[in-house]
Amino acid sequence: MQQPIVLISIAVGIIVLFLLFGTALKPFRFIGSLVVKLLIGGLLLFFLNILGTSIGLHIPINAITTVITGILGLPGLAALVVIKLFMV
């Protein structure tokens, strides 16, 4: 008679642990992926500046350009290049 109660208790305990630790880790996953995207954005800007020196193209690496390139990716980088070439 005790076996079903023990199994149900263990199952409920495991579900509660997954719910508690799963929700606690979601903000850290989001922050981690955001940091990785920002690092990739900074690297894209760095390589663009290395390759762009031959044609006179330089986009400064600062917080705003890194965020734009990191969040939007290559379309963001292309937008920064278009802004640099046609607006400035």
Q: Describe the largest sheet.
A: none
Alpha-beta content class = mainly alpha
Question: Helicity range of the residues?
Answer: over 70%
* Unreliably modeled segments: none
The amount of beta strand, in percent, is: under 5%
The radius of gyration over CA amounts to 24 Å
Q: What is the count of β-strands?
A: 0
Helix run count: 3
Structure explained in plain terms:
By secondary structure, the chain is mostly helical. The mean pLDDT is 86. It contains three helices and no strands. It has helices spanning 2-52, 63-72, 74-87. The protein is rod-shaped and about 80 Å long.
Itemize the secondary structure elements and their pairings.
Layout: H1 2-52, H2 63-72, H3 74-87
Helix pairs in contact: 1-2, 2-3
Task: List the keywords.
88 residues; mainly alpha
Summed up:
With 88 residues, this protein is mostly helical. It is 85% helix and 0% strand.
